[in-house]
Structures are given as C-alpha cells and as structure tokens.
Amino acid sequence: MDPLQELEERVGRRLAALDENETIPRIWLKDFTVWRDDPAEITDRLGWLTVHEAMRGRVPELEQFASSCAADGLTHAVLAGMGGSSLAPEVLRETFGVSPGMLDLVVLDTTHPDQILAVERSLPMDRTLFVIASKSGTTTETLSHFAYFWEKVRDGSRFVAITDPGTPLEELASERGFRRTFLNPPDIGGRYSALSYFGLVPGALIGTDLVGLLDGAADMARACASDAAAANNPGARIGSAIAEAAMAGRDKVTLVLDQHVRTFGYWVEQLIAESTGKDGKGIVPVEGEDLGGAGVYGADRLFVGIGADNVDKELAALRDAGQPVVHLWLDDAIELG
C-alpha cells in the first residue's frame, strides 16, 4: 500500500477510535483517565481549555493597567520568566510589534551575565517596568533576575508579579509594594499559559489586540467542542495526524510558517517537545529550517504548514513528491489565538 494512503487510513481509524471512546467529550470534562489512571500533574493542568473565557472579562482591566503604565511615563518592560511561560509574550512582540504609545518588551529568559548586562544597557532604566513571572513563585532564575534589578531600581511601583495564588512571589510582591500582582488560575501549566495572565499581561503592555486574540481562541474552542465528531474536529485531526505519523516513523514534525508568524514556531517547538517527550517517547519539532528540495527528505518527516497561499505554494513540491503535508490555514496573524 502507498505509505501516504496507509497513513491516511491510520488517521481515519484513530479518529473513529476517539469517537468510540468518547475521548473528546472526556477531555472537555477534564477527565484525567484520557491520559492515565493517576490524576497527578493532569487534573491541575487542564485549565487552558477554558481560560480564554475567564480572560475575556479581564481585557478592560488589562488594557487600563497597560495604559496607566504608559501614562506614568514608562516606555519599556522587561519580562523575567523561564521556559514556556515566556515564549508566548515573545511571539506576541515579534508578531504584532508595539502599538504607538505603549511599552516595548524585552523577554529575559537567561541567566547568562553578558546577556543580562546587554539588556540592562539597552534600556532606559528610569522608564522600565519589570514583570516577574513564575507559576510556582520559586523559580531560582527568575528570582535572581528580580534580585539583580531590585538592586538597580528600588521602587516597588516599577515591578509587577504574575504568579499562582499563595506563592512566595505573591508574598514578596506584597512586601516590596509591587505596582500590581496578577494571580493566575492555578490549574494551568507554564507552556499552556499563553492565553492566561502570563501571556496577556505582556500582550496588553505592548498594545496587542487582546479581544481579537481571545475571539480566535473562542472560535477554535467551538470548532473543537465536545459535540463535534472527531473527523470534523480540527484539534482531533491535527493531533491524530501527528501521532499516527510519529508511530509510523515520521516523528519529526517540520514546521513551515508564514513569515508574519514565523516566531510562533518557538512556542510550538517547546509545546510539542516537552509535552510529548515523556516515558521514553517523543516527537521532534523542527523549527526554523529552510526547506530543501523534496529529494533531500527521507521517510521520517511530517510537514505542518501554518499560513495562507504562500505557505501552500511552499508545501506543493513536498506534497507532489509524496511527503505527508498538513496545512493549517491562517489568513490573519491575530488568529494565532
């Protein structure tokens, strides 16, 4: 059988199994047994499914907060955060830029002294807001960032915290008189936090269209809703395609991104690599690679394109050569939500 036809049939069987096992409704019900019998690290990590609904009502508050920062003469913000929670703000900054009159954003997710010094020297320290972001409130690197910049700017009004309720960072922010502390829903893991305060506070500071971002999320949530058959569910379809391709030996998901959303690959790379890299298994995301001719690739790739017509043209040669291709259409960058 033709390998692509075989993969297509495998995906079809997987989608049918999802329906038979009621997997999609169980995910929306936050049923941990979809993944394993032990609820640890699952039941308290599924808040990302509906966080866009809660955050929609917070948009005016976030926009007002960002405007007040700009009105007070602040022109720059440094986000101190490590790992997945810092990638979404970086994607927002690189994708949407900075709206007129709002704060420019630098993401600091390293402890390398030279890079920290370079960030410090590039900023007007008297007009910079420091956003200290840590879910646990105990991240050593992030608290080190805070300690360093607190020595430079001993003014609580120039610091903001984003953390879970009841963490040491919340306590520290209270003691030092931080300008604001945003307490995130605690049932969201760092790399799934793009549409929570971890992503939206920095997004508000640079003037991102938060309503548009969350509207896109709501549209996709409806499309992936529990009453949709798996074959008509975009989340189930892409998940089944990636999983079945990996089990067939095509375990390198190669991202082909529209130039306007190229940094989205940073976030997808971390999400796929860390989420699937468990229990001796894994899928390798390939991000930022210049596409070669169809003849240079073997039988270990699945190509996932994100964008409009130009991306489809890039994928055409690969598709014609018999490589498996998934194209996620994206007409406007704000649809990243």
Please provide a written account of the structure.
There is one protein chain. The chain is globular. The chain has a 5-stranded parallel beta sheet, sandwiched between helices. The protein has a 4-stranded parallel beta sheet with strand order 7-6-8-9, with helices on both faces. Helix 5 (84-96) packs parallel to helix 9 (197-206). By secondary structure, the protein is of the alpha/beta class. The protein has 2 domains: 3-20 and 230-336, 3-Layer(aba) Sandwich (Rossmann fold); 49-215, Glucose-6-phosphate isomerase like protein, domain 1 (Rossmann fold), CATH 3.40.50. The chain is 45% helix and 14% strand. It has helices at residues 3-20, 23-28, 51-56, 59-71, 84-96, 113-122, 140-152, 168-176, 197-206, 210-223, 234-247, 264-276, 309-320; strands at 76-80, 104-108, 128-133, 159-163, 180-183, 252-257, 284-286, 301-307, 325-329.
The CATH homologous superfamily of the largest domain: Glucose-6-phosphate isomerase like protein, domain 1
H and E string: HHHHEHEHEHEHEHHHEHEEHE
Number of strands: 9
Distance between the termini: 39 Å
Largest sheet descriptor: 5 strands, parallel
Note the overall shape.
globular
CATH architecture of the largest domain: 3-Layer(aba) Sandwich
Range of strand content: 5-15%
The radius of gyration over CA amounts to 21 Å
| pLDDT < 50 runs, ≥5 residues | none
- Please state how the strands of the largest beta sheet are arranged side by side: 2-1-3-4-5
How many structural domains in the coordinates?
Answer: 2
CATH topology of the largest domain: Rossmann fold
